[in-house]
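The records we work with from here on pair a chain with its fold. These numbers are not coordinates but entries in a learned vocabulary of local backbone shapes. To see the layout at work, look at the sequence and tokens printed below:
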Amino acid sequence: MADIVNGGDLYVFMNDVALAYSTEHTLSMKMGTRSTANKDSGVWDTSDVDRSSVSASCGGLMVYGASLTALLSVYYNRVPVTLEFGEKDPADGTLHTDVLYAGGDFVITGLDLTASDGANATYSATFEHYENFQFTPNPSLNLR
């Protein structure tokens, strides 16, 4: 039987701190291809594997304090941050390093603060891979 992971157990950690009250997270990995077709290929295009790209996003309830201040600071100063996407350790609330997780250095490419009248204020952030993306602790998936 496959292990089922509850989405509520997944977190995005920024510099070892869980982004507060984040209610949704996405880690998007895309494999690029390049055409290898030539005039002798016939009517069908042929492709080969090219580079991969990684992006991430998160959204949640607005918190005026450390998490929002940290997001605004790294966005404004254009500083790469370490993001880790994985399960929260129930013992101490940090990243559960005994299970497979993904991480690397990212830059914030978008930061949205939404405050509708009569509704909870929210934030969402998007990130693009900067460097050092890898899966841990499975060494066969090390992608550096």
Notes: Residues 66-77 form the longest helix (12 residues). The beta strands are 10-14, 17-18, 22-35, 47-61, 81-87, 101-114, 122-136. Helices lie at 66-77. The radius of gyration is 19 Å.
